[in-house]
């Protein structure tokens, strides 16, 4: 070509949650049944959308208005409804004009980092959710900048690490939190959120809070929204229905802007996001129309509460199985529907294996692990996939120097859930003893 087409930042785009599927598909073609623990899709894990919710959506499909463009920022009545939900809580108050719809949070995340000056950075948690860390790194053409979540302290953020990184890196302009967290299942304590807000205020930063799992908490936990703690600091929250209803195929999410008029530069940034969506015309109409009808339905709160209780019960089942493996550093989860399990330092090496019955699968796995630079946790993940047909995601792929794997808490069949995690525990013991 006349010039190099690809930007330097493009090499930072990776998504191991989906990448591992390519290898699992190759194994599946050899006749191995796969248990998918890699991606947070409740529907794939046999969640049944209730009939009352299906009825609402079905009725909307009969209405002609469901097939038109929505306004670029989103349907006004839905934005007014969501602003009202926010304003019922004490904290930052918003209007419909402070809400902007996107085609899922993947779309929203890409837009946020796209319009930040390429010389400026947003620091986020590690282990990192790949969509955020890859998009931020791609915009900067550099590795992501992260603060540590500490597995020795319930996965809580190391706020001294965050403070020092912000203090000594003047290019950091924003702080990202994911609350509840993906991939760890941690819920940020209120006092820690307040300290993060104080850090943002001290260094004149803005805040981003990914709150896609905000209403998915259990085992006594409660997640606080950014609006409840942000006070006068500029920031934005990302929300959606893919995990909460759940309706992942809707591709429907939104941003809420807080205190955008408190800082002219942040207000211009929010306007740029509005304009970017205007150029795209709009986001999907049908799910926007469904949001007020579903969230205000008399069955909705109890429905969500029951789903949360089921996830909490599954978290206890998994804890009972994996916390008994002494080579693992295990934390119970309190939000979202993931758990990140860490191998204790020194337990992994590049000689460990698991028996694989199928010779073709064995050949593939041995080829994958023989490549230079394969992380030790990825090596375990490949052997687990080839030996037991269980697909999990290595934590080294979440922008972390820890070694472990992420699983979901979504399997509705409790017998299968117990069998799957018992198999994982037994595989770990065999692998580490080999």
Task: Determine and state the CATH class of the largest domain.
Answer: Alpha Beta
Based on secondary structure, the structural category is alpha/beta
> What is the architecture of the largest domain at the second tier of CATH?
3-Layer(aba) Sandwich
What helical percentage do the residues reach?
Answer: 40-55%
Number of strands: 14
Instruction: Classify the beta-strand content into a percent band.
Output: 5-15%
Whole-angstrom Rg? 22 Å
- CATH homologous superfamily label of the largest domain: Type I PLP-dependent aspartate aminotransferase-like (Major domain)
Shape assignment:
globular
Low-confidence stretches: none
What is the fold named in CATH at topology level of the largest domain?
A: Aspartate Aminotransferase, domain 2
Distance between the termini: 50 Å
Mean pLDDT: 93
Task: Please provide a written account of the structure.
The protein has 434 residues and is of the alpha/beta class. It has two domains: 8-47 and 301-433, Aspartate Aminotransferase, domain 1; 51-295, Type I PLP-dependent aspartate aminotransferase-like (Major domain) (Aspartate Aminotransferase, domain 2, 3-Layer(aba) Sandwich), CATH 3.40.640. It is built from 14 helices and 14 strands. The strands form three sheets. It has an eight-stranded mixed sheet with strand order 2-9-8-7-6-3-4-5, sandwiched between helices. The chain has a four-stranded antiparallel sheet with strand order 10-11-14-13. Strands 1-12 form a two-stranded parallel sheet. Helix 11 runs parallel beside helix 14. The protein is globular. It starts with 15 loop residues before the first helix and ends with a helix. The mean pLDDT is 93.
């Amino acid at each position: 070509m006349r010039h190099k087409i690809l930007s330097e930042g493009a090499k930072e785009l990776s998504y191991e949650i989906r990448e591992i599927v390519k290898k699992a598909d190759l194994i599946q073609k050899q006749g191995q049944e796969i248990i998918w623990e890699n991606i947070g899709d409740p529907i794939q894990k046999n969640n049944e959308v209730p009939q009352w919710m299906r009825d609402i959506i079905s009725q909307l499909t009969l209405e002609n208005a469901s097939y038109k463009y929505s306004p670029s920022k989103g349907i006004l009545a839905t934005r007014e409804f969501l602003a009202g939900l926010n304003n019922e809580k004490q904290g930052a108050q918003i209007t419909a004009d402070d809400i902007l719809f996107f085609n899922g949070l993947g779309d929203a995340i890409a837009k946020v980092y796209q319009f930040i000056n390429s010389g400026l950075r947003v620091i986020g948690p590690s282990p990192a959710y790949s969509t955020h860390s890859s998009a931020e790194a791609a915009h900067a053409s550099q590795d992501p900048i992260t603060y540590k979540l500490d597995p020795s302290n319930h996965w809580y953020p190391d706020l001294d690490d965050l403070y020092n990184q912000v203090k000594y890196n003047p290019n950091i302009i924003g702080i990202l939190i994911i609350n509840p967290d993906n991939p760890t299942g941690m819920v940020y304590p209120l006092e820690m959120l307040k300290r993060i807000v104080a850090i943002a205020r001290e260094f004149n930063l803005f805040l981003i809070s990914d709150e896609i799992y905000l209403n998915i908490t259990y085992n006594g936990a409660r997640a606080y929204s950014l609006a409840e703690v942000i006070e006068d600091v500029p920031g934005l929250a990302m929300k959606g229905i893919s995990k909460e209803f759940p309706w992942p195929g809707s591709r429907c999410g939104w941003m809420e802007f807080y205190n955008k008029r408190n800082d002219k530069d942040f207000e211009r940034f929010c306007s740029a996001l509005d304009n970017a969506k205007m150029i795209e015309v709009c986001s999907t109409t049908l799910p926007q129309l469904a949001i007020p009808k579903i969230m205000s339905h008399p069955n909705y709160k109890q429905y969500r509460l029951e789903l949360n209780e089921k996830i909490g019960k599954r978290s206890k089942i998994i804890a009972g199985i994996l916390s008994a493996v002494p080579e693992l550093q295990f934390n119970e989860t309190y939000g979202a529907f993931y758990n990140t399990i860490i191998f204790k330092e020194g337990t992994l090496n590049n000689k460990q294996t698991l028996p694989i019955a199928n010779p073709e699968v064995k050949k593939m796995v041995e080829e994958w692990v023989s490549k230079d630079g394969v992380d030790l946790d990825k090596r375990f993940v490949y052997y687990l996939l080839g030996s037991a047909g269980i697909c999990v995601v290595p934590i080294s792929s979440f922008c972390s120097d820890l070694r472990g794997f992420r699983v979901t808490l979504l399997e509705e069949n409790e017998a299968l859930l117990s069998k799957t995690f018992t198999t994982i525990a037994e595989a770990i013991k065999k692998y580490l003893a080999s």
